[in-house]
Design a protein that fits this description.
Elements lengths: L2 E5 L3 E2 L5 E8 L7 E7 L6 E6 L6 E3 L7 E6 L4 E6 L8 E8 L11 E2 L3 E5 L2
């Protein structure tokens, strides 16, 4: 059974940092494009960052560029999202997702994790 399991969500103060993990079970994440989505309270889910299976190219939503970094550890079959300088508007449930294609990483998702909660508040 193919599964994605997120972890690392927590409550932090503005300006703080968190590292989210997305672990794969039953498949090798290195062969997939992995995307992190965020769903803020009362808002639609939005793609915020991805790492493709073509040369590990990375993409970021403008609002997180320079603050978030996505990376892949193939030995651990895990993708990370390092989040720095967190803002209250970063609050939401963070989901990782996988697809086999390398293009348009925010659409046509094949597999979803169940999400991890991030709360940024003073």
């Amino acid at each position: 059974q193919l599964q994605l399991v997120e972890s690392g969500g927590d409550s932090v103060q503005p300006g703080g940092s968190l590292r989210l993990s997305c672990a794969g079970s039953g498949f090798t994440l290195g062969y997939y494009t992995i995307t992190w989505f965020r769903q803020a309270p009362g808002k639609e889910r939005e793609g915020i960052s991805c790492i493709t299976n073509y040369r590990d190219s990375t993409y970021y939503l403008d609002s997180v560029t320079g603050r978030f970094t996505i990376s892949r550890d193939k030995a651990k079959n895990t993708v990370y999202l390092q989040m720095n300088s967190l803002k209250p508007e970063d609050t939401g449930v963070y989901f990782c997702a996988a697809k086999r294609a390398s293009s348009r990483c925010f659409s046509a998702i094949e597999y979803w994790g169940e999400g991890t909660q991030v709360t940024v508040s003073s």
